[in-house]
Amino acid sequence: AHLDRIAAVDGDLNAFLHVSEDAALEVARDVDERRAAGEQLHALAGVPIAVKDVVVTKGTPTTAASKILEGWVPPYDATLVEKLRAARLPILGKTNMDEFAMGSSTENSAFGPTRNPWDRERIPGGSGGGSAAAVGAYEAPLAIGTDTGGSIRQPASVTGTVGVKPTYGSVSRYGLIAMASSLDQAGPVTRTVEDAALLHELIAGHDARDSTSLPEAVPAFGEAARRKDVKGLRVGVVEELEGDGFAPEVRARFEESLAALERAGAEIVRVSCLNFEYALGAYYLIMPSEASSNLAKFDGMRYGLRVVPEDHPTAESVMKASRGAGFGDEVKRRILLGTYALSAGYYDAYYGSAQKVRTLVQNDFAGAFEQVDVLASPTSPTVAFRLGEKTDDPLAMYMNDIATIPANLAGVPGLSLPSGLAEDGLPAGIQFLAPARADERLYRVGGALE
Ligand code: GLN
Question: Which ipTM was obtained for this model?
Answer without folding.
Answer: 0.97
